[in-house]
UniProtKB/TrEMBL annotation:
The lineage of its organism: Eukaryota, Viridiplantae, Chlorophyta, Chloropicophyceae, Chloropicales. Heme binds at C582. Residues 1-29 form the signal peptide. Keywords: Heme, Iron, Metal-binding, Monooxygenase, Oxidoreductase, Signal. PANTHER family: CYTOCHROME P450 97B3, CHLOROPLASTIC, CYTOCHROME P450 FAMILY 4. GO terms for molecular function: heme binding; iron ion binding; monooxygenase activity; oxidoreductase activity, acting on paired donors, with incorporation or reduction of molecular oxygen. This is Cytochrome P450. It comes from the Eukaryota. Gene3D superfamilies: Cytochrome P450. Belongs to the cytochrome P450 family.
Length: 651
């Protein structure tokens, strides 16, 4: 189980002969001293109960299962192999020459054939069979030795992961069967899926600097460069320190008026639709458009005007957004191949789109730098943002004394905020409206609150505080449809994850290079934590949750203006958590509350009988079929007729 100083191969490479179980052998076939390689076969251990048939309930501490068996290089038992396969494999391999090694390999061909046969019997789907075979061949050769041998392994097929259902829904079923921390292998990749709040808190907060964005950074680097999401830790620390002061109170107060002005564009468009015979509108598209206009004006002082027009820039923005989603759900990064952007039509289009957006951002950055008014941070935060010509975050970053960001770094930051901010807000508004239309009683409570608080005027920051039920609707929508549903991390060094609720009290060891999926979807719908987990019930955020084992529970009265990860002990992650939590969470929540309130104040929404929006995922959770709503004007208290509504909108 341990590597000898004189051995050039890891033990795992010598002994990992199949994906069913590795072999416990007494000596390595590559010059390893027998005295240093003795292991204890975990006979009877049921950590892999489903595969070995040895029973259930083992936590890795049964007799004959030493603690070292849970370590990174621990061997796995010969006894766990099916008897007909185990009989083919010798239990002791002395130091061998090349000829002897070739002869010794002959039984392994039979082992491979038997494994293939077993795989095919288990699943007639050839995709699943070959995925399992690739996993078997990869272990110990192409995959990093990521340890975690005591972690339960989920039973799943490749078709579960790349079928019609979104990935996060397949992971949810595995979570119910395998618990809060489990291993999942498909094709040449192995992931640890984490759905336990204590393990998540360890990764995101307690030991956050031992994890980076891993696969996600590799996917997004061509799009966002060294922006805040994909940046390495050192770059991220510098950029976070520069950007976070820009989301100060004076800026957010000013943004409330901007949110309202941008939403009024959509309201005017909807007024026009109400005059038509066909009063159906895809509200998902409308929410995405208003979110894009807000990000453009609020972050870098550019008016996309996407509610009422379509330009080459808008087309390019949506092209890049779709490519980001495509890359996040494609397992083979073919776009990294040489000349892919020349011969692959999709990549040619992406290259053109990213070029158009970069040109616009470069021009905006240049104009801001040419009109720089350098001040220290305190002076910037005390500006009269409601009366300045350009209150954008870009202006703040350019004018901040001592902030020597290059144009390239500013562009990466702006691109990151454009994609992340636009996607999240558009998605949460879509699902919030869908849930309200499906729950008329909740809709009635929300509209009563909006009418009482807003009347016939634009919302203010104080109104957001008063619209508690609207805030809870947004929070509940983010619980049921988290944006994104999965967070991705990679271990930078060896670590031990907490066992969490119902897991191994000694935790689970993982090795450097381990890729982890943090399933926010599973956390937010865990039946262990949430009562009526699949129901839309915004009032739950006023209720306490009792502690469960080592998890400390939650008292809804201590949550503040919005529910957050700290109050919920990391069982609720609407914007991540720890040092790398989303910086724009308050911006996004305020934007969503104002946009939803203004639209519900003026219109009634309904769907045709039998219509289902469906669900698909990329960077966030989208509908599969749009959110088509029939809209009509509400009878507003204090307005006598339709003309009164139009005058209110114009004002």
């Amino acid at each position: 189980g341990r590597q000898s100083p004189g051995c050039g191969w890891r033990c795992r490479r010598c002994v990992s002969l199949c994906g069913v179980a590795a072999l416990a052998i007494d000596s390595c076939a590559r010059r390893m001293a027998p005295a240093t390689t003795t292991t204890t076969a975990r006979v009877g251990c049921a950590v892999r109960a489903r595969r070995s048939g040895a029973g259930t309930g083992c936590s890795g501490r049964q007799a004959g299962c030493p603690r070292v068996a849970r370590a990174r290089h621990a061997a796995r038992p010969l006894a766990a192999l099916p008897a007909e396969i185990a009989a083919l494999v010798p239990t002791d391999l002395p130091s061998l020459g090349q000829v002897e090694l070739g002869a010794a390999a002959l039984p392994f061909a039979g082992l491979f054939a038997l494994t293939f046969t077993g795989a095919f019997k288990k699943s007639k789907n050839l995709q699943d069979v070959f995925s399992r075979l690739i996993t078997i061949v990869s272990q110990g050769y192409f995959q990093p030795n990521t340890g975690g041998d005591s972690i339960p392994e989920a039973e799943g097929e490749m078709s579960d992961l790349v079928g019609d259902e979104p990935l996060f829904k397949a992971l949810y079923n595995m979570f119910l069967d395998s618990g809060g921390v489990f291993r999942l292998s498909f094709g040449p990749k192995c992931f640890i899926v984490v759905s336990d709040p204590l393990a998540v808190r360890h990764i995101l907060r307690d030991n956050a600097y031992n994890f980076d964005k891993g696969v996600l950074a590799e996917i997004l680097k061509p799009i966002m460069g060294k922006g805040l999401i994909p940046a390495d830790l050192e770059t991220w620390k510098v950029r976070r320190k520069a950007v976070i002061p820009g989301f100060h109170k004076a800026y957010l107060d000013c943004m409330v008026d901007l949110f309202a002005r941008c939403t009024e564009r959509t309201v005017e468009k909807m007024e026009g639709v109400c005059e038509q015979e066909n009063r159906t509108l895809d509200m998902e598209t409308e929410f995405l458009n208003v979110a894009l206009d807000i990000i453009g004006l609020g972050i870098f002082n550019y008016d996309f005007g996407s509610v009422n027009k379509e330009s080459p820039v808008i087309k390019s923005v949506y092209g890049v957004l779709k490519e980001a989603e495509h890359r996040s759900t494609t397992y083979i990064p073919y776009w990294n191949l040489p000349l892919a952007d020349v011969f692959v039509p999709r990549q040619r289009e992406f290259k053109k789109d990213i070029g158009i957006i970069n040109d616009v951002l470069d021009e905006l950055i240049l104009v801001a730098q040419q009109t720089q008014q350098e001040e220290d941070m305190e002076a910037l935060q005390n500006r009269d943002y409601k009366n300045v010509k350009d209150p954008s975050l870009l202006r703040f970053l350019v004018d901040m004394r001592g902030e020597d960001s290059t144009a390239k770094q500013l562009r990466d930051d702006l691109m990151t905020m454009l994609i992340a901010g636009h996607e999240t807000t558009g998605a949460v508004l879509t699902w919030a409206l869908h849930c309200l239309v499906q729950n008329p009683d909740e809709m009635a409570l929300v509209t009563e609150e909006i009418d009482r608080v807003l009347g016939d005027r634009r919302p203010t920051f104080e109104d957001i505080k008063e619209m508690k039920r609207v805030r809870m609707v947004i929070a509940e929508s983010l619980r049921l449809y988290p944006q994104p549903p999965i967070l991705i991390r990679r271990a930078l060094g060896d670590d031990t994850l907490p066992g969490g609720i119902g897991g191994d009290p000694d935790g689970y060891s993982i090795g450097k290079g381990t890729d982890l999926f943090i399933s926010v979807w599973n956390l937010h719908r865990s039946p262990q934590i949430w009562k009526d987990a699949d129901e839309f019930r915004p009032s739950r955020f006023d209720e306490a949750i009792d502690p469960i084992g080592p998890w400390g529970g939650y008292d809804g009265k201590n949550s503040g203006l919005y529910p957050n990860e700290s109050a919920y002990n990391f069982a609720y992650l609407p914007f991540g958590g720890g040092p790398r939590k989303c910086l724009g969470d308050q911006f996004a929540l305020m934007e969503a509350v104002i946009a939803l309130a203004m639209m519900l104040r003026r219109f009634k929404f309904s769907t045709k009988a039998g219509f289902e929006p469906g669900m698909k995922t990329g960077a966030t959770i989208h509908t599969a079929n749009g959110l088509f709503m029939d809209i009509s004007r509400r009878e507003l208290e204090g307005t006598e007729d339709v003309q009164g509504v139009k005058q209110m909108v114009a004002k």
